[in-house]
Amino acid sequence: MQPVGIVHKATQPPHGVPQLSPLYEHFSSPHPTPAPAPADISQKQVHRPLQTSDLSGFYSLTSGTMGQLPHTVSWFTHPSLMLGSSVPGHPAAIPHPAIVPPSGKQELQPYDRSLKTQVESKAEKETKKPTIKKPLNAFMLYMKEMRAKVIAECTLKESAAINQILGRRWHALSREEQAKYYELARKERQLHMQLYPGWSARDNYGKKKRRSREKHQESTTGGKRNAFGTYPEKAAAPAPFLPMTVL
DNA sequence: GGCCCTTTGAAGACT
DNA sequence: AGTCTTCAAAGGGCC
């Protein structure tokens, strides 16, 4: 029996921001405790395959909940949250945007893809399984939402520079503001788990050609990360605050 | 055409 | 268990 309060490493944000919610306990515990707020969603997700209606409910509820965000996340346009034929039983022919062709280019249009696949052999199709992308973390969701705003303000276009600004702004956010994004990210991970039960992050390992380790570390960090994937000065951040109660 | 840069966080790999 | 590495997004820069 796992003591209350012990959470899996993967579910605990670095700053301890959003703690395990009852919704998540449905996935991690064989005897889940009743979820207070969005109980209907978690139960649907647990007891049968995910369906479009479930997800639209999920989004509308989540959207409403997260409507308190200062900058509303585009739930229905977020790539890895949009639905498609990858959902069992879903009528649409548009694949889930988290699924990209092996080439890695997500913006490839469906008809382009169909033209290309026509000339591919059947064997090729089978070997070239589409890539399922990782779910976005809290900071990635924040970046995605705020990028356009920063570009407009700074008239910059280079993503490297934009991301530096966004990184600083992220740290300038209050705990409460960050918590909202952590919560969004947690929900996205849950949805991702529902959509792709057998998926693992290792599936995408080695699919990108990367520069050498030394160069990468030197250029990107200038130092080593600690056990939490952050850096010493960041690890000294203020103590975590209590989990969100709004759901 | 495709990797690099740059950020944080999640998670797998490694020691 | 602790540490390291990779990949998520984005788009200009560069080879």
Automatic annotation (TrEMBL):
Residues 1-47, 202-234 are annotated as: Disordered. One of its GO terms (molecular function) is DNA binding. It comes from the Eukaryota. InterPro entries: CTNNB1-bd_N, HMG_box_dom, HMG_box_dom_sf, TCF/LEF. It is found in: Nucleus. GO terms for cellular component: nucleus. One of its GO terms (biological process) is Wnt signaling pathway. Residues 132-200 bind DNA. The keyword Nucleus applies. Belongs to the TCF/LEF family. PANTHER family: TRANSCRIPTION FACTOR 7, TRANSCRIPTION FACTOR 7 FAMILY MEMBER. This is Transcription factor 7 isoform 8.
